[in-house]
Amino acid sequence: MLYELAHLALKLYTVPKALSALEHYATAASARGRLLGCWETEHGEIVGRVLLLREFEDAEALADERQRILTSSDPFGVGEHLESFTVNSYAPFPFVPPVQTGHYGDVYEFRTYKLKVGGLLPTMAGWEAALPERTKLYPLTTAMYGLDGIPRITHIWPFPSLDERVAIRRKSYERGIWPPRNGPENIAHATSSIAIPTAFSPLH
């Protein structure tokens, strides 16, 4: 099981039209992969940024869809609304269960850590030890490592609200549950995005 996370930068004031077309692209009978989630980012650059998470059965299926997107004059069915896009391939941490769609929170946090050289295996070892206690506070959507580009991990967390996000994270620090051992030591650069599920997102 592999994942694709697409970052779509949409032209200002085109998001409603673009989301309607994107929903059709991702859910039509001809759609490739399984749609897991679609979110609008809430902070950062003032541009219509949308995140799209899809699941693929294997590398061949993911590569076929990647080729289709890269050679299309209408990528994701929203070409007329796009300023730019990036697509990244991921594999889940081997001890993390497959993504389960459903209602988990009104806000989601996407955190991406670019890793130091050789940092992936010790990072995953620390996560494997720490996740059971951390997910008792609130569930994890997924944690995954990049298969292309810069060595990195991306983890996605749902929260009931922004206030609850702060409270849950503070509790995990105070109890010594988080961050995982070998985690911060292997981060070269970190980014975080807060995103809101769209109306058609299976993860919401």
Commentary on this structure:
The chain has 204 residues and is an alpha+beta fold. The protein folds into two domains: 2-91, Alpha-Beta Plaits; 97-197, Alpha-Beta Plaits. It is built from four helices and eight strands; from the N terminus they run E-H-E-E-H-E-E-H-E-E-H-E. It is globular, with a radius of gyration of 17 Å.
Keywords:
about 200 residues, alpha+beta, Alpha-Beta Plaits, 2 domains, eight-stranded antiparallel barrel, 4 helices, globular
Please specify the SSE layout and strand pairing:
Layout: E1 2-10, H1 15-27, E2 34-41, E3 48-56, H2 59-70, E4 82-92, E5 107-115, H3 120-137, E6 142-146, E7 152-159, H4 162-174, E8 187-197
Antiparallel strand pairs: 1-3, 1-4, 2-3, 2-8, 4-6, 5-7, 5-8, 6-7
CATH architecture of the largest domain: 2-Layer Sandwich
**CATH classification, class level of the largest domain:** Alpha Beta
Major sheet: arrangement of strands: 1-3-2-8-5-7-6-4
How many helices? The count is: 4
Number of domains: 2
β-sheet strand percentage: 25-35%
CATH topology of the largest domain: Alpha-Beta Plaits
Class by SSE composition: alpha+beta
Shape: globular
Residue-averaged pLDDT, rounded? 95
Uncertain parts: none
N→C terminal distance? 21 Å
- Total beta-strand segments: 8
> What is the radius of gyration computed over CA atoms, rounded to a whole number of angstroms?
17 Å
SSE succession? EHEEHEEHEEHE
Characterize the main sheet: 8 strands, antiparallel, barrel
- The helix content is 25-40%
Short description:
The chain contains four helices and eight strands; from the N terminus they run βαββαββαββαβ. With 204 residues, it is of the alpha+beta class. A hairpin with a 5-residue loop joins β6 and β7.
